Amino acid sequence: MTEHAPAIWPIWKLALLLYVFAAGAVAINLFMLGLLGQSLGLPALSPMTVLALSVPLGVPAAWASGLWVRHLLEQAR
Questions:
Q1: What residue intervals traverse the membrane (predicted)?
Q2: 3 state SS of 4
Q3: For residues 57-72, b (16+ Cβ closer than 10 Å) or e, as one string?
Q4: Model pLDDT for residues 18-38, shown as the tens digit of each residue
Q5: Which residue, among 50, 44, 48, has the nearest Cα to 29 in the 3D structure?
Q6: Nearest partner of 18 among 76, 70, 72, 63, judged by Cα
Q7: Which candidate among 11, 24, 46, 53 keeps its CA 20 to 30 Å from the CA of 61?
Q8: For the chain, how long is the longest CA-to-CA vector?
Q9: CA distance 49 to 51
């Protein structure tokens, strides 16, 4: 019997699984950035605006998270 190495998930699958968490992290960071902007005299970002911005900005964050997890999986091999 030959022993096969376990398959490592592709980055796009990892990014798809991590998208919800990455977009949530982006939303929290944008909201905090909006609060910081108020101290500089900028208008506050509404929660709906933050959520609308976090949907497209969550894609590169999820991809970066997928790359990071893939790297960890390769190290664990």
A1: 12-36, 48-69
A2: coil
A3: bbeebbbebbeebbee
A4: 999 999 999 999 999 999 999
A5: 50
A6: 63
A7: 46
A8: 69
A9: 5
